[in-house]
Amino acid sequence: MSRFLSTTLKLGLMALIGETLLRPLLTFGGIAPDFALISLVILAFAEGAYAGTLYGFVLGLIMDSAVPNLLGLHALCKTLTGFGVGRFRERMVPGMVLVEGLVVTTAALGHGLLYLLVESWSLRTPFFEPFFLEVLPSALYTGLVAVPLIRLADMLGLLRRDD
Fold first, then answer.
1. Which 3 state secondary structure label does DSSP give 31?
2. Burial of 55 (0-12, 13-18, 19+ CB in 10 A)
3. How much is the pLDDT for 106?
4. How does residue 110 score in pLDDT terms, banded at 50, 70 and 90?
5. pLDDT value at position 1?
6. Cα–Cα distances in angstroms (integers) from residue 33 to residues 113, 124, 146, 162, in the given order
7. SS3 for 57-108, per residue?
8. Which of 18, 52, 54, 85 is the most exposed place for a label (fewest CB within 10 A)?
9. Span 10-23, mean pLDDT?
């Protein structure tokens, strides 16, 4: 099995386990980490922009099946996030925990901001209150939870550091 397929399957399994088993346990006050986004960022770190874009699109389509009134919005947000993180990985110094946490936080914030902008515009819902009460705390929490998961992925050899 190719390295890309192997890494994708492992991270897809991580996202599934995180979203179904760990997310309910780690929810505080309605704020929970986004394990699907964390797996997308780890894959984009490991394989680059092309793989991050493709994985983000497929992951987003799977998530869009639960929200039919905004079909394609998760796919758009996750595709752009995977591409952006994949392009940024070339400029990143491997092993810097603070930088990796900030990249995940920024990716989660950008993803949530784009999703909320389109949602508030199309459904005529408020923007600022959900941004400050849901998107911003969730992005910070996702970045905090992602740091040990990125270190674990590095220890397991999922992050390729030879390029």
1. strand
2. buried
3. 95
4. very high
5. 53
6. 15, 26, 8, 30
7. HHHHHHHHCCCHHHCCHHHHHHHHHHHHHHHHHHHCCCCCHHHHHHHHHHHH
8. 54
9. 87
| Interval 68-78 mean pLDDT | 89
Whole-structure pTM value = 0.91
Token couple for 20: 């179904």
pLDDT in tens, 128-162: 999 999 999 999 999 999 999 999 888 888 876 55
State whether residue 3 is helix, strand or coil. Answer: helix
First to last CA, the chain: 20
> Can you tell me the distance from the alpha carbon of 139 to that of 115, in angstroms, rounded to the nearest whole number?
13
Task: Please report, as a single letter, which amino acid is at residue 155.
Answer: M
Tokens in use for 140? 């910070």
Domains for the chain: give ranges and CATH numbers: 3-155 (1.10.1760.20)
